[in-house]
Structure formats: C-alpha cells, structure tokens
Amino acid sequence: MSFDSRSFRDALGTFPTGVAVVTASGSESHIGITVNSFTSVSLDPPLVLWCMDRRSQRHDAFIAAPGFTISILGTKHREVSSRLAKPGEHALDGLPLKPTELGPPGLAEALAIFECARESTLPGGDHTILVGRVLRFSRSNAGAPLVYHRGKYSALAQGKPPEGVEGRRTEDKT
User: Fold this and answer.
1) Structural domain span for residue 27
2) Is residue 63 part of a domain?
3) What is the number of structural domains in the chain?
4) What is the C-alpha separation between 131 and 61, in angstroms, rounded?
5) Strand partners for 47
6) Residue 6 phi/psi, 5° resolution?
7) pLDDT in tens, the chain (174 residues)
8) CA 10 to CA 61: how far, in whole Å?
9) CATH of the domain at 116
C-alpha cells in the first residue's frame, strides 16, 4: 500500500495555523521567507522553532545565519506573505521594515516580533528544524492574525463566542 502524500498534506491543512515571516542576513542583504510552522518550545529558557524545506534556495543562508527575526503577521500582511512564500531568493526590498538590535529587521506593523539567536538545528525529514533562543521581543495589541487553513489565507471570526465561553465581539466597547 502506498502512502498518499497529497492527501496527507490536505489532512494537515485542516489544522489552521498562524503565518509568520522569518528574516535573516543573507550574503548581500537581508532575506525573508513565509512560514506557518512557527511554535513555542519553552518559556525557560525562551525557545521557539520553525521548519524550512531543505530544497529551498534560501535554506543554506538561513542555516548559516547566527540568528533570525520572526514577525507574526496580521491580516494586512497577506501580500507580503504571498511574495515571500514563492520559490527563489527573496530580498526585503520595498517592504515596510522595523530595525532590530539583532540585525535582520522585523516587518512593520507585525503583531509580534521575536529576535532569536540560533540555538540548534535538527533534521526533520525533508525539512530542517531551526530552534531559536528569544533574545528580545515586542508585540502590538492592534490587528487580527493572518491564518492559513486548507491551502488558503483566512482570518479568525470576530463574532459571538461559542456557547459557555466568556468573551465579547471586537466591535463592542464595554
């Protein structure tokens, strides 16, 4: 019996994920890549991880970088996400950026920005798992997260909370 990789990918796509852009210093300029594999690992020490396809043209540059910056995207970043998700080398030219102490910039108006020193890399099948130690971070209280679900961009519903869950609509003022 053969394993159906396309069906497996479609099944994984039923899990909604946030979308982030990871930036690093390349050989000539800063580079970026869109990821939906970002997750927290540990609070003490503060560690996060993301995964990168080993076939990516940007793979070696990210693996060689001593650190990287992760920007959590809001719904206004859809075009940036699409641009940096495509194959090829991707400079950050023309994008609104926010300088960081680490070097690789964050995206302006990101929901959160994490400056990370590379802690470790691990093999993960056809991907490399990059673990970063968070050195500094910032966050914004404005904006809704960009979400990826079933192969498409989406956003979280901003309606009435589910039965039995406290909360309010975002447009409510009280």
Assistant:
1) 23-149
2) yes
3) 1
4) 15
5) 42, 133
6) -65, -45
7) 688 888 988 898 888 889 999 999 877 789 999 999 999 999 999 999 999 999 999 999 999 999 999 999 999 999 999 999 988 768 899 999 999 999 999 999 999 999 999 999 999 999 999 999 999 999 998 888 999 988 888 877 665 555 655 654 454 444
8) 29
9) 2.30.110.10
